[in-house]
TrEMBL record:
Keywords: Coiled coil, Glycoprotein, Hydrolase, Membrane, Metal-binding, Metalloprotease, Protease, Signal, Transmembrane, Transmembrane helix
Coiled-coil stretches: 178-209
InterPro entries recorded: TIKI1/2-like (IPR040230), TraB/PrgY/GumN_fam (IPR002816)
Name of the protein in its database record: TraB/GumN family protein
Pfam families: TraB_PrgY_gumN
Keyword Transmembrane helix attached: yes
Lineage: superkingdom: Bacteria
Species the sequence originates in: Flavobacterium lacisediminis
Membrane topology: Single-pass type I membrane protein
Cofactor: Co(2+); Mn(2+)
Cellular compartments annotated: Membrane
Principal localisation: membrane
Length: 284
């Protein structure tokens, strides 16, 4: 009888762990010896509406510090990121693409950004693609991270990062430069059409607080960078963050703001924390 009970408990736990997470961007972290709860919030890096709801503002007020993916309050961060944007080993976009395709990218950038691709020939191609993100929106782009930082500064609290600029930019050395160049070329040939469709779909999923949907969209994306590199983009980073989060929460009640795609899935931050013994519950 005891054996059957243990077996039932095991399978119930397994089934429960495999269930989809609730639709919520804000999650409360408690238990496992924490004196005060901390909070985990899924952000979106570019959007038309970065306003925060009352629960999120209350969670910011209840915590003592803010941790983002990077310490965006570091005045030297932009300079560090600029230095890390270059491809290694002297690789250039003009050698990853044919002369005809590079000319097409150059003309597209001149038209949309008023800058020549030749200025960014040594940049990781994804960095060039990211410069086009604001062009994919039918509004002035806003940042959720900026809103979180604004409130944190008003509270005279510190802002930190879960990783360094070097860690984040290394991701785009691990993803094939050729794949990055090919995706940039697809964007140019399509004149941003598919990218606009994807980013609008992502904003809608985000507005619905559907973190599982965010992860699924990344998995199903036509963009090879996103769909074929989830270990590099998400899972490995999630695992690296967990020890930092645990140490941080023990010292101070903390508000963590990371991309919503990092929250969901078996290797997402929520389930990784639960496996470490923490109670992580959705704030609806």
């Amino acid at each position: 009888m005891r054996y059957l009970f243990l077996l039932f408990t095991f399978f119930t736990s397994l089934f429960s762990d495999a269930q989809e997470l609730e639709k919520s961007l804000l999650w409360k972290i408690s238990g496992n010896g924490l004196k005060k709860p901390s909070y985990l919030y899924g952000t979106i890096h570019i959007t038309c509406d970065a306003s925060l709801d009352e629960n999120t503002i209350n969670a910011l007020e209840a915590t003592e510090q803010l941790y983002l993916e990077l310490d965006m309050d570091d005045k030297s961060i932009q300079m560090k990121l600029m230095k890390l944007m270059m491809m290694k080993d002297g690789t250039k976009l003009s050698t990853l693409l044919s002369a005809e395709d590079f000319k097409m990218v150059d003309e597209f950038m001149k038209k949309n950004l008023k800058m020549s691709a030749k200025m960014f020939d040594s940049f990781k191609p994804f960095m060039i693609s990211s410069m086009l993100f604001p062009k994919m929106l039918d509004c002035k782009s806003q940042s959720v991270e900026s809103e979180l930082m604004k409130i944190t500064k008003e509270q005279n609290e510190e802002i930190f990062g879960l990783e360094k600029a070097e860690d984040q930019m290394k991701v785009f050395d691990e993803i094939s430069y050729q794949d990055q160049a090919d995706e940039l070329l697809k964007t140019v040939k399509d004149d941003l059409e598919n990218d606009k469709k994807e980013i609008n779909e992502m904003m809608l999923i985000y507005q619905n607080k559907d973190i599982e949907g965010m992860l699924k969209m990344m998995s199903d994306s036509d963009n090879k960078i996103t769909s074929e590199n989830q270990d590099i983009l998400l899972n490995n980073r999630n695992k690296n963050w967990i020890p930092i989060m645990i140490k941080t929460m023990k010292d101070k009640s903390t508000f963590f703001g990371v991309g919503a795609g990092h929250l969901a899935g078996e290797e997402g931050v929520i389930k990784l924390l639960r496996k470490k013994g923490y109670k992580v519950e959705a704030i609806q």
